Description:
A two-stranded antiparallel ribbon has the order 1-2. The chain has a two-stranded antiparallel ribbon with strand order 3-4. It has 320 residues and is mainly alpha-helical. The chain has two domains: 2-146, Cytochrome c-like domain (Cytochrome Bc1 Complex, Chain D, domain 2, Orthogonal Bundle); 162-312, Cytochrome c-like domain (Cytochrome Bc1 Complex, Chain D, domain 2). It has helices at residues 2-11, 39-52, 54-58, 81-84, 95-98, 112-121, 134-146, 173-183, 185-188, 226-236, 250-261, 296-301, 305-318; strands at 101-103, 108-110, 195-196, 206-208. Mean pLDDT is 92; it is low at 1-17. The structure holds heme C (2 copies). The site of one heme C has 25 residues, from helix 5 and helix 6. Residues 54, 74, 76, 78-80, 90, 92, 95, 98, 112, 115-116, 119-120, 123-124, 139, 159-160, 217, 221-223, 228 line the site of one heme C (HEC).
Amino acid sequence: MKRFSCLTALALASTCALAAAPGIKDAAAYDVSKLPDDPYGRLVRYGKELTEKTPAHLGPEAKNAKLRYAANNLACASCHQAAGTKSFAIPWVGAHATFPQYRAREDAVSTLQERVNGCMERSMNGKPLPLDSQEMKAFMAYMHFLSRDVPVGARVEGQGLPAFAPPARRADVQAGAQVYAGKCASCHGADGAGVRAGKAGDGQGYLFPALWGPDSFNNGAGMNRLLTAAAFIRSNMPLGTTHASPQLSDEEAYDVAAYVLSQPRPVKAGLDKDFPARWNKPVDAAFGPYVDGAPAEQHKYGPFQPLTENMKKLRPTAAK
Ligand code: HEC
Ligand code: HEC
């Protein structure tokens, strides 16, 4: 469809310079086994291995104790599904083309390495990887490989998460518990602890990852924001769901995300330093301080529309 309109534009003797955003290709396009056995090919393959088998290499049970930078047994691919190649599951295809980039969380321009470490410290509840480590280089090489056909600065169709328009009400944790029992607990467990792939201690991580409790993402993670979690869940869960064929309504995704995020998880220190430009803080950031005077509960569970409206008013003045 996109290609067709581009061809049409060519037929009209127009240039194709403003071509539509590139899309994510079929899995074969990202097959690392076809790369030669040379230094680049080996590093890309190691990057993919780290993405899928993160606990074996970087987790708390990793054989090489010096590399235990992550403090939980999730894999990057627990969220960046299909090793970072699934549309609307925060894919890495094109990530190399969109960094360096301004990030509100730091109120500064961040590199792709710093973004990886954002997930290391939050999603993985761990420590940042040294920038000159082989592991950081491997992540960069793999993301570079996934982005190789994407022009610098272009945004890929399906990158990130789709926008989520929340219902105009507070999320209903009790209703979310019902959705969870019916559609999630069979894999992630009634206690949210997931199902290990092997045995605890063997570094094999999860068959079905932990959604809460001590071995999941911490409260500073992007997934701990209600609108982020709802968007992820709506387009990707239960397993097998795609953005084109969601299995939950917006209402169900909103409530079940609230239920998951109402449960205990590791706490990150120093979160008050996040989003130093307070007026630029997302309305669903689950921790203070907030500049708008609304209660913390509302920032966690909504309703979000009044907060969004209020932030718009605050922005120009608070930014001065
Ligand atoms: C618990 C889920 C989760 C896990 C596990 C996770 N991430 Fe993320 N990651 C996210 C979310 C959510 C975002 C987007 C957050 C936002 O910006 O709102 C993200 C964003 C990113 C981005 C930026 C993508 C872009 O297009 O801007 C990179 C790069 C990244 N993660 C790398 C990693 C790496 C490397 C690992 C493993 C070491 C990892 N992540 C593990 C949830 C996760
Ligand atoms: C059939 C099994 C299955 C069902 C049912 C299921 N999930 Fe998942 N879920 C997975 C797997 C497996 C992953 C890891 C990603 C992957 O392998 O593609 C995952 C990942 C996740 C993640 C990100 C990783 C993490 O640890 O936080 C969240 C959040 C999540 N699921 C929420 C849900 C919710 C909410 C439901 C119910 C609406 C649900 N899942 C239903 C299997 C399932």
